[in-house]
Amino acid sequence: MIRSVLLSTMVLQMKQSFARPMFRFSLIANPILNTILLYEMFRHSQQDNFVSYVVLGAGLMAIWSCICFSSAGDIQRERYSGTLALIYAAPAGFPAIITGKILGNTLLSLSSLLISLATAVAVYHTPVVVIRPGYFFLAPVALVGSFMVISTVLAALLTLSRRTSLYMNCIEIPFILLCGFAFPIQVLPAWLHPISLALSPTWAVDLLRMAVNGVEDASLFFQKLLILMLLSVGYALFSGWLYRYMDRQVRMTANLEVC
Q1: DSSP 8-state secondary structure symbol assigned to residue 179
Q2: Residue 82 lies in a domain
Q3: What's the confidence (pLDDT) of residue 231?
Q4: 258 in any annotated domain
Q5: Angle separating helix axes 200-213 and 218-253, nearest 10 degrees
Q6: 210 Cβ contact list (under 8 Å, min separation 6)
Q7: Residue 259 maps to a domain
Q8: Spatial distance between the Cα atoms of 253 and 182, rounded to a whole number of angstroms
Q9: Which range marks the domain in which residue 37 is found?
Q10: Residue 233 within any structural domain of the chain
Q11: Does the pLDDT value for residue 239 go beyond 60?
């Protein structure tokens, strides 16, 4: 039953998300504009591999924007539509429905990477070379998983809040900076490094860049993949605890409605 709920919710969410103008802007226009912006920033940087910091950076920024304004925004839309309480009380289970929504948004937003790549090739005639394609196909799977686990945590936290719009606008840019989407986290102040390393997308982005640039040390790649998996398990356990805590709070306060 859970499998069918995840699949049907994912397909429906992809249709609903693409029907929204803001999501289409984040999905299509955002990676194009980010690619142009990052190219102008990096054109004199002496960067060896264009793909790892311009194409990937623009695509990842667009993916996170889609997740912020859709996965996080879905909680607010359901609340103001008066359907959040109905979804919460559905026999399928609120976590399964929310996970299906997050999965649909994440998979659909992956097309931003292709749009960013196409923009770089069409506008700047940039040659794109993936040195180790085997690792490159493994890294996006890790990327999807990292985005999903952190999105489930955010969804649980935002369900209890009535300031969803404020928070989802506040988390977009800090995550882009902390996770190293557009530049290495090494340029950040040292006191921010532990926060960056505690975020699962940071490791997924690192794996993706390693796959594009060429994995010279396979053991280092799989070591980082193991760290990402352990972080993802930790996030999953934390989100499970959050949903149980949320369930107790909702039953006591009945705060899923607008008023």
Answers
A1: T
A2: yes
A3: 92
A4: no
A5: 150
A6: 135, 139, 220, 221, 224
A7: no
A8: 42
A9: 2-253
A10: yes
A11: yes
